[in-house]
Structure formats: C-alpha cells, structure tokens
Fold these 2 entries.
Entry 1:
Amino acid sequence: MTKKTLIFDVSVIAENLNGGRGRSGIYFATYNILKNLMKSERFNVVLYSEINDAKFIDFIKSEFGNNVKVFFTNRYALFLSKMTKLDKKLRAHRHNVLKLLLNIFVRKPVKFFGRLAGVPYCDVAFSPLRVFGNKIHAGKKYILLHDAIPVLYPEYYPQMLLKKYWFYDLMKYIKSGARCKYFANSNATKNDFVHLFNMNPNDITVTPLAANDTFRRVTDAKKLARVRAKYHIPKGKKYVLSLCTLEPRKNLIRAVKTFIEFIRRNNIQDMVFVLGGGHWNEFIGHLESEIHDLGKYKDKIIRAGYIDDTDLATLYSGAEWFVYTSQYEGFGLPPLEAMKCGCPVITSNNSSLPEVVGPAGVMIDWNNDEQHIVAYENYYRNKKLRNEMRTMGLARAKEFSWENTVDLICNEIMK
C-alpha cells in the first residue's frame, strides 16, 4: 500500500513547550495524536509550524529523530510575541516594524533539516486546533474540534469581541463552507457544532481522547510520601484533589467552598483540599468574598500550584477522591486521568463528562452546593463506595486509548 503524505500542524506544541498553564488538554491531545500517527504505516507525516525557535527544533529532534520533515511558513506570530516585550511607544508602531521585519526575513528561504520553508502539496492536512493557513494545499483537510464554549459561554471569552481569537477564525472558516471535514473529541462537542453552525453530522467523526500511559495506580509508599512532602500536604491528613486552571467555568470556588462547609458541618479534622493549578492570590480573594470566616479554614486548603507531569499519577493515586465539577467540558481529561490512577471521582452531569466517566463516578449538578456536600459526605463515610468507584474507574479508563483514537482518525481519512 502506497503511503499518503499527511501534514500535521504542530504549532500548539511549539507554543507551549515551556509547560505551566499552556500545557492544557489540547496540548497533550496534539502531542499524543501526533506520536501515534508517526507510528502509522499508512502515512508519511510531515510537520508544519507557525513558530520556529531553537527549543522547539531540539524537542522535535529528540522526539522524532533528525529525519522528520518540518516546514515553517509564518513568522508573524513569533515576531508579535517578541514585540510585546518592547516599550509602549514601540508597540504603538509594531505593525510598521513587523512589516519591515517580515519583508527582511520572511521572503528569504528558511532552511531546516536541509529543506526550504515552502509547504508542498500533500494528500492530507490535519490540524489539532486552528484553521489552515493559505499555504497549506491538500487533497483532504481535517480539523479537530475541542468544544464550542466560546459561543455557548461568551462571557468567559471577551477576546471574541475583538475578533482576534483563534475560535473566531474557526467560526468564519466553518461558515464559509470550506472544503474540510472534522473530528470531535466527544458526542457532546459534535452535537454542539452541528446545532450551533448547522454543520452536516456526516462531516464530523467522534474520536474520544485518552489519558497517557504514565497514568497508573501508584502504591509505592516512599513515592507517595515524597510527593506529599513536595506539595506540602500535611502528614497524617487525607486529601481531596482538584486539578484545573482557575477560571469561572471550572467551578473551583464552589468545590472548595462546599468542602469547607462539609468539614464544618461534620466537624472533620483529618482532611484537606489540595488545589493543583490556578492563581493562588486571585483564588483566595474570590474565596474570602464567599466565606466570611475563611481564616480559620485556610490551613485546610493546600496550594500545590502547577503539578510536574512526573508527579501527577502519584498525586491522583494518593487522593481520597478527585473533584471536577466543571460547568462545561468538551471532553475533560483530568477525570479520566484520575480514574486510570484508581482515584474515585466526583464530576458534573453535563456536557461530555457522562461520556467520559459513565457509571464509574459520582455525578452531580455543577451549580448545586448541597449535592457537592452530600457527595463529599458519601465518599468520606463509605469506604465500600470508594473502593467500588475505584474498581469501576480503572475498568472504565481501559476503554480509552490514544491508539484507538488514532485508529478512528486513520480509518476516516482512508475512506
């Protein structure tokens, strides 16, 4: 069988190599889909990026070898990011400066791995996020849809009003009737796009995401103790874990507020809430406005901050349960990661989360305080329930794998 040439947009990886907040589910989905596509016998995979820097080049070499083909076709994004570091006067004239820089540099061939920066015609183009640039020419084009939250909840995305956000470009692209097909990370995401943009359901294939193989149950007592100490979890205390960025849609204020009410109501002394991710000062400010006597409960909230990738499985494994009662999710990787580590979960009963968790978790209304408190109480008091959910979660997580995701993608492309 003759291999097809597939060009893959890796700009998301190039943008977020520094870790931290940018390393979201979209980053990990992009990386894992690419990793498995590179193993496929059906395609010769060529990489395309709008950002070209030394760290990215080193990463590509280390992950995929020196012979991988990479094309860079647009340096505007890189120049723009550098311009933001200049003083206000220069930024006021940045477009004139950029025009000059683009005329100087972009018109010259950019060599990488011995190839020029012009993108050739290919059989298939795949983008894990954004619309395709004008220089991408392919027989088939596919874009992965993650969620329609900027349209469903525009109050969280004021940048949409400026028409400068990547999702705005995606909306225009879909409405233009461009010759393209799509993958969606869940049935919920597919249904949203069909209804919001009057898309043909046959043009969207559902390809559920997965958790990395690094997520597995950790039982090593020394490793558990080391990670607890690293993130300042008090000895002798059980902990509840929540892992997400601090944004209103994630519902973190309610999750912590109801936890405090749970320990106050039941006079619980042996539990703390471990918060991974988020901006601590901003979060505490919001929480203090919700709980007038937060002071005596502050030691019940442990700031873990950004969790190193190598510590995630251990932190999940040591938790009594995991809380992820988001207002809306396109897929929701953290609950799946938790289940794969044998951690019981509490999630919302909306959007894609029932597709991910199914019967293997406690599902509640995201905006119901009492349901949060009752869910905490049930897990705390009922060890049998925790063990049942742990077993069911481990089994449920096995239904998701990146190999299956990429098989679905390949099968659709090869039709």
Entry 2:
Amino acid sequence: MGILFKKLFLGVLLAINSLIGIAFLICSYASYLDPKEFWYTGFLGLFFPYFLFSLVFFLVFWLFIRIHWALLSLAVLIIGYQSIIRLVPLNAPQAFELKKKEGDLRVMTWNVRHFIPFDESRFKPDGLKHKQQVIDEIRQYQPDVICFQEFVSMPDDGENDPFAYLRDKLGYRYYQFAGTDIFGTKQYSGIAIFSRYRILDGNAVPFPDSYDSNAEAPVYADVKVGEDTVRVFSVHLQSFGFKQDDYQAIDDLKRDSDKEIKESRKLLSKMKQTFYAHGQQANYIRDELNSAPHPVVLVGDLNDVVGSYAYSVLKDDRRDAFLERGFGLGATFLSSSSMILRLLPTLRIDYIFHSERYGTRQFVRDGKRLSDHYYLVADLSRAAVSGTN
C-alpha cells in the first residue's frame, strides 16, 4: 500500500511539473503577442517568474528522487533560456563608483510620484524635507541627464519649486517638460528631462486622443554629448489606476466571499484594459523611436514587467542597462498600498534601454521608500561596447 501511494504521489508531482513546464514555455513567448489580440498575455508575464522558480524547485527535487525525471525541467529551462536571462542577469555584484569616467554619459530615471513620501498615509508629510531628500540623492550621483516621471512643478513655491531648484541650484540649464496644470491648481505635472548638456531639440509626443488614455505624454530631447547627439526618450505607460478598494481586493485574494469575488473580477477587468493600453502605447512609441534621427536612450516607467509585450516591443534590439550590469531580480516598484505587492520581488517595471552604439559601464538601483519607485542610474560608454573598462 505504501509503495502504491508513493508511486501515485510521485506521478501527481510529475503531472504538475509537466503542466508548469507547459505554462512556462507559453509565458516565455507570450511577450511577442499583442494584448489587442491576446488579452491574457499581460497576466502571463506576471506569472512567468513563479513558473521559473517552480521549475528550478522540481529540477532539484527530482535530482534526489528520480534523476531522469529532472530532465523534463532541465529541457524546458534550456528552451526558455533567453527569457530567463532577461529576468535574472548573471552579473557579479559591482559597487557603483560615484566618480564618472571621462566621456561617459550618466543617465538617471525616477518616477518621483509628485514628490509625495512613500509613507504619506501614516503621518503628515513634510513636503519640503522630502523634496530635499530627493534632491540629495540626485546631487550624490551628479547625473548628466535626469528623466522624471510624475514630476511636478510648483512655481508659487519660488526657489523651493523642484523645477527652479534643479535649474538654478543644481545647474541643469537645459530641460524639456510636458507639464499640465493639475485641476487648475498651478501645479504642473508630467514628464521632465533635465540635462547639463545642451538640448538641440525636444518635444512631447502625446498619445492620440483615440487611445482614450490618461497616461503622461512621452517626451524626447536631443542632447549634444561631445561629438554625438543622443535622443533621450522618457515614457510613462498607462497606470493601472488602482484605488484603495482595488488594493484591498489584492490583499484579500485568499478569501472567497461574494464581495471579494466581485471585487476581484473588477480588478481583473481593469488590469485587462490596462494591458491593452500598454500594447497600444508601446506600438505608438516604437514608431516614434524608429523615426529618430539619432541613437536612442529610452527610459521610464512602463508599468509592466520583463515578460510583457510592452517590454519586448520597446527594448527591441536595444540594450537593457540592468541586464548588462545589474544583479538579481531588480524590482523597481514598492507598493505603499498593498502588502502583497510590497512583498513581490519581481516587479521590475522601470528601465534604461540604449542603442547598440553604447554599452553600460555601471548601473545602480537605489532610493528605497523615497517614492514608490526606485531610481536607476547608468553610465553609458562607447568604450563599454567592446568590453573595456
């Protein structure tokens, strides 16, 4: 009886292993399917890391129980190898040198969430103090180009206006800002690019009205770097627009009451529509990038993970700075509203992509709890393309 039960138990595990393998392979190639036609692909991208971890678990498990059954997980992992290295780069951890090498271009991107502190719900925030903390992080790295998402300018604050401070105190004389007045409050919100180098041209390229989008308008700036001109493109794809009841639904997924089921369905519908919007917006930005007259550095908050269609379209044949010099899973989003989302280590949704003309000499992700996003900093160098340091 004991032997029969053992065989049955191992057979069930092998069946589960097989199903996870199939799901993993589907997820590996789902990023090439436009959500307009295949709406479920956005969800597959979210689950991909967990199918990967499960396959690794089964691989190790079978090595001790039925070594030849481990070949199933191994074969699946080999087939999906390209997707795996996009998720977890195999670089050695490397300390970031604050002193930039001559000739490098240091780029920073940060969704600063309108300079609202991460824990704003727990105390009355000191806005001035928080803005100074953000400025101190920027001053530490001295980037040549800074790209902000959810940037806000408050002219009535005088010298405490972040826009004025960056321009007048930190020396970012050149800028491109697509800010719109928030509800007539004389606070201008949008995407901003600040540069120490001269900006030869720049503009916003808003999404068409037909997209019915409330996403921030993408912004580009042609930056003169030595003999080169680089088109820096900053984007922020559609937010999921979760409200407090949506976050509550995420944290209550383990429950099965009628109310929670109803809220979960509403949540899934909202996510489906957002994934569709990401596909539209990514295709639009891709067309803009393809018409660029200069090498491109594309940065921003895609609100989507590595296994998504948006990531696949916008990365294209460009280099991902995190994959070149980063380490680990590299999550860039830390939810202040949902405990489950806060604990997820796989939400890498902010990126620095760049033309093949450049390589990433070094990369850092930092700024935990100054916003609900980490900031990214990368030193880009022509020398790094050939692997020299």
